[in-house]
Amino acid sequence: MDSTIHKLEGLRLQNLQNNVHYTCSPCGKHNCFVCLTKCEACRNLNCSCRTIEYGNEISRVKPKPSIYNNSLIKVGGVGDFCEIKSFRDANLPEVLIENLRKLLYKVPTPVQSIAIPILLEGKDLVARAETGSGKTAAFLIPIVSTLIKRKTVNSMNPFAVILTPTRELALQIEREALLLTENTFIKPVCTYGGITIGHQKKKIAKGCDILIGTLGRILHLAKQSMLSLKELKILIIDEGDHMLDKNFVKDIGKLVHDFDMPEKSLRQTALFCATIPTTQIIHDDKGVKKKLAFFTDTVCMFLNDTYCHVDVGNNLVTPKSIIQQFLFVDKLELKFQLLEKKIAEELSNENKTIVFIETIKETIKVAQQLCIKDYPVTVIHGRRTQNDRKQAMYEFNEGLKPLLICTNVSARGLDIFEVKTVINYNLPNLTHDDIRTYVYRIGRAGRIGNPGKSISLFLKGRDEVLAKPLVVLLGGSQQEVPTWLEELCLVREMAKLGNYSQAIYETKRVAMLTEKNSSDDTRRFEDKGKVKDISYRFSKLTPI
Question: Rounded to two decimals, what is the model's pTM?
Answer without folding.
Answer: 0.64
